[in-house]
Amino acid sequence: MTDSSATRTCAISGKTVPASDCIPCASLRPSLLAFIRKKHPHLGMGECIARDILPELKAAFVEEALSEEIGEITDLERNVIDSLREHEIISERPDDAEELEKRTFGDVLADRIASFGGSWKFIIIFGTFIFGWILLNVAIMIAKPPDPYPFILLNLLLSCLAAFQAPVIMMSQNRGEARDRRRAEQDYQINLKAELEIRHLHEKLDHLLHHHGERLLEIQNIQTELLRQLLERGGNPPSSS
């Protein structure tokens, strides 16, 4: 049973901390231990590191690994590293209601025009208007129609409508693209953090399995040596009564 009052000295900070708040160097994955030993060459396998300084070391290790793999670290990758250091959650719940409240009058107008201009309602209404205009100027016999064939005034109205409608719709689309870009950046950060955590778990499992195999092999060698000594002495293993 472990004594709850036992203390250990951190090999890096030199502080005395409870044994439960220390991580033995032998239990660290080899890649992380090799990185720490670059900065602290005196670190031995029998020493330990305090839990409160280990996240900072892991974050520095991840930053160096990312720099070697992808080159220059951007703000996105740095946010992921900071979240690993602080044990924070990157993912955010999408709040469309809050985003809608932040829209200006021009944003609301652009969204409504884009929504109406891209609907069947607009197509039907505008198609009816064009058909009525042509019917008024051609089918109905008027001495002086307001816009005789080839409907120059109608072409002018259509050109003006397209000239004003296109920029308004583009404003709405640009806002949608900016929102999608923010979500794509968030997805990238989440995927990067998940990949780093999964890689850490794989290395940790491989490290534990390797040490477990070495320990089993050591126990098996001890048992074999004991059996060999018993056979050499010509004795039998003690039987339990």
TrEMBL record:
Domain of life from the UniProt record: Bacteria
Listed InterPro entries: DUF1003
Residue intervals passing through the bilayer: 122-143, 149-172
Pfam family, one: DUF1003
Annotated keywords: Membrane, Transmembrane, Transmembrane helix
PANTHER family: INTEGRAL MEMBRANE PROTEIN-RELATED, MEMBRANE PROTEIN
Protein name: DUF1003 domain-containing protein
